[in-house]
Structure formats: C-alpha cells, structure tokens
Amino acid sequence: PGLLEPTSTLVRVMKSASTLGIAIEGGANTRQPLPRIVTIQRGGSAHNCGQLKVGQVILEVNGLSLRGHEHRDAARIIAEAFKNKEKDYVDFLVTDFN
Amino acid sequence: REKRLTLPPSEITLL
User: Fold this and answer.
1) Which of A12, A22, A56, A75 could bond B13 through an S-S bridge, CB–CB 3.0 to 4.6 Å?
2) Minimal C-alpha gap between A3 and chain B (Å)
3) What is the DSSP letter of A17?
4) Could A23 and B8 be called an inter-chain contact, meaning their C-beta atoms sit closer than 8 Å?
5) Do B13 and A23 touch (CB under 8 A)?
6) Among A10, A74, A16, which residue's Cα sits nearest to residue A44?
7) How far is it, in rounded angstroms, from Cα A53 to Cα A39?
C-alpha cells in the first residue's frame, strides 16, 4: 500500500490530546474523492504532532485505504482509529498531491 | 462539461 503514490508520506499521530483535531472534506462520489484536511485545530493531537498540514489528502488510515469510501464512512474510519484503545497512535498515509 | 463538475461538494466533518 502506498507504493504507487510516490509523493505520499506516512505520518504517525500520537494520541497526545483528547481530540484528533482535524476537519476533513471529501469522500467517494463528491468533487473531492479522497478526504482532504481543511482545518487543524490548535491543541489537538494532529496539531501537537506537527506533521499534518491543511490541504493534504488522506490516502490510508492505519493501513486501510479510504478510496471508495463515502464521506461519512471515511470520517467514521478515522474516528474509530482515534478511539481504538489498542493503539496510542494513528498512522496516516497522506499526500500533498491532490 | 467535465463529469467531475457535476459531482456534489462534500460536507465537512470535525474529528
């Protein structure tokens, strides 16, 4: 996974705050077929991590591709990855190329 | 007209 996306970056976000703190738009059957980060909230885990940026497109979450998932489904996958107590991090494969 | 222009915008979700 990810090998066919030469500009992709794996970012590990530690669950350092009670919220992930990103807003996303997009999903299958919209103008933005993969979720794009539109906001990073100060004080959230993503902001604390320092490696996610507004405008990046999320390709995978914990190795699970978001391709083909509609917006609410993609949002649920990300939310569940953050809530899952088995891991103290969430891995995001992101790309700056939209 | 490109097909993608007919696709709807997405809602935004805060996570």
Assistant:
1) A75
2) 26
3) S
4) no
5) yes
6) A16
7) 8
DSSP character at residue A88: S
> Which residues, 6+ apart, have CB-to-CB distance to A80 below 8 Å?
none
Q: What percent of chain A has pLDDT over 90?
A: 90
Q: Residue A75 and residue B13: Cβ atoms within 8 Å?
A: yes
Distance spanning both ends of chain B, measured CA to CA: 34
Residue A97: per-residue pLDDT: 78
Give the CA count within 13 Å in the CB-facing half-sphere of A6.
0
Which residue in the set A20, A29, A30 is minimally distant from B15, CB to CB?
A20
* A1 pLDDT higher than 60: no
Residue A61 to residue A79: CA distance in whole angstroms: 10
Q: Would you call B10 and A38 a contact, using CB atoms and an 8 Å cutoff?
A: no
Q: What is the DSSP string of A19-81?
A: S--EEEE--TTSSSSS-EEEEE-TTSHHHHH----TTPEEEEETTEE-TT--HHHHHHHHHHH
